[in-house]
Amino acid sequence: MVSARGAVVAVIGGGASGTLAAAYLLREAAAARIPLRIALIDRNGRHGLGQAYATSDAAHLLNSRAERMSGVAGDPGHLVRWAAARGIEHDGFLPRAAFGRYLSELLADAERAAWPAATLSRITSDVVALNRAGLHRPLRLHLAADGRIDADVAVLATGNRPPAPPCPVPDSPRYVGDPWQPGALDGIADGSPVVVIGTGLTMLDVAITVTGAHRGTVVHAVSRHALLPREHSCPPGAAGWRGSAALGPGTLARGPVGLPGLIRNVRAAAADAPGDWQSVVDSLRPHVAELWQALTPQDKRVFLRSVARYWEVHRHRVPPATASRIGLLRSAGRLSVRRGRVVAVSEAPGGLRVRIEQGDRTAEIAAGWLINATGPGADVTSTPDPLLRGLLDDGVATPDPLRLGLRADDGGALLDASGRPSGTLFTLGPPLRGLLYETTALPEIRDQAAALAARLIPACRSRAAETAA
SS3 of 47, please? Predict the structure, then answer.
């Protein structure tokens, strides 16, 4: 149970979003000199790591340069200095495990600086329900195994939802529905063939891990487009282009942006920078949320259906070392990339049979393992998570029009079924994808965490005054 002194903020999720939200709340509370209690709740006890940075495979690298991954707003060199001070050698792309350590230390530093006025409790549990009926506080969080926390504010920092299976799959230990669950890949070391659904960033990490666990393992990666993420250019180009070709003078002020025209302008900008398309993509990044919000609903649907995959492989690139490993696996015949859709899975002696539809043809692969690496679940309304399911069913939270995530105001307050912003429920990071589209990378999450803390601290000050009285 969290102390009754001062305000209580429950942060649900201990990954990058939750860790940075807690760290910035601690810093703001310390600066304002107000008592604050934060409960950081993570279902797997991976506080500071979450799914993305809990990996122990040293070959799993950050997909962005360290110079762009600082967790401290306004200090872009913070991560690079941190790594240098600890003797962590890298070529510009840190191991993801090292970045998890960095986030954990950021949180620990904020905790020490804020003590004793503001404190942090790390709680390992699932939040299975949330009611507006706490004892002396507006919220009550129900934990697995009958625990509970009463809080003034709750922050949903739940990260990406697990992928949904593309077709019915048997209830078999040979099917890995979420490769980032603790220990999910540990047993895949018997040398039998592995089919991976998806050809994005997660597939690359999975292929590196399972082929490293057994020298005889062969991976078959399947996706509709069979596109792999592009490789970062090294050294990076000079980011001189600032998006004007895509936006145009006053484009957003004139109203909705047309997707076809936007695509034409981005392609024209890339043509004007031959050999340096990556700078064009990177320079467009600060405008993505604004452009996304300016698109019509129909254009957003067209983008998701026909354009998003091409944007993702150019926007979310891989380090040269990762690209080299994947290239070696492919040239050795240990990784094949197939275009198609997995349409049926059945059990077979010693494994599974996977049917792949390739246009008007079908093929079957005998697999020892099937791994779902299709990325985050696309429809929030189909979530099996009991907390999110309950919030949606009660109308406390509502899906965005595309059902990519949750509706919220510009400051992250959840909107209820009547469109009213909550004064007690907030979110950041991946749940805001429908609102911002680009909201899963560290810079966006960091800035959202800083802004959210600044928004919540005045309310925490008022609550602290009430409890003192």
Answer: coil
Q: Look-up: residue for tokens 């018997």?
A: 190
Distances (CA, A) of 324 to 89, 308, 397: 19, 25, 44
Q: Determine what percent of the chain falls in helix, strand and coil, rounding each to the nearest 5.
A: 40, 20, 40
H/E segment holding residue 46: none
Nearest to 425 by CA among 56, 130, 119, 39: 130
Phi, psi of 449 (to 5 degrees): -65, -40
8 Å CB contact between 316 and 201: yes
DSSP SS3 for 36: strand
Question: Cα(142)–Cα(372) distance, rounded to whole angstroms?
Answer: 30
- Are 162 and 377 in contact, with CB atoms under 8 Å apart? yes
pLDDT in tens, 156-191: 999 999 899 999 999 999 999 999 998 999 999 999
Structure tokens at 245: 């070709």
pTM of the model: 0.92
Which residues on adjacent β-strands are paired with residue 346?
A: 353
Is 52 in contact with 95 (CB distance < 8 Å)? Answer: no
